[in-house]
Amino acid sequence: MQEEYMESEVELWIQDYKEGLGQFEEKLPSIARSYMDFTGACFAAGDIDQKMKQLMALGISLYAQDEYCIVYHTNEAIHHGATEQEILEVIGVCAAIGGGAVMSQGVTLVQDCLAQLNTKH
Predict the structure, then answer these.
(1) Confidence of residue 120 (pLDDT cuts 50, 70, 90)
(2) What are phi and psi of 66, to 5 degrees?
């Protein structure tokens, strides 16, 4: 029962996004179409397949904390054959990068600030 609810919720998020994009397209059709053409070209299969592109997009969406993109690209990754394990590994890599960003800034920039500011006080 829980899975059915979650699936419906995911579908509603995607529908909400598509409806919003449709409304935007009515008001600014050339910009909306240009954006959709651009993203369509970016996600087309090339040297990197569509599954990998969707997993990359999911990771970026997670890092950016963009809920609509998280839902959309999770759905698209599954649609293009991503397994649950692959998606979970993306989450792990993003957690490492997110934590890594905090650590790298903390051990460099913050410590540099502390060193400089402590000499003034």
Answers:
(1) confident
(2) -95, 100
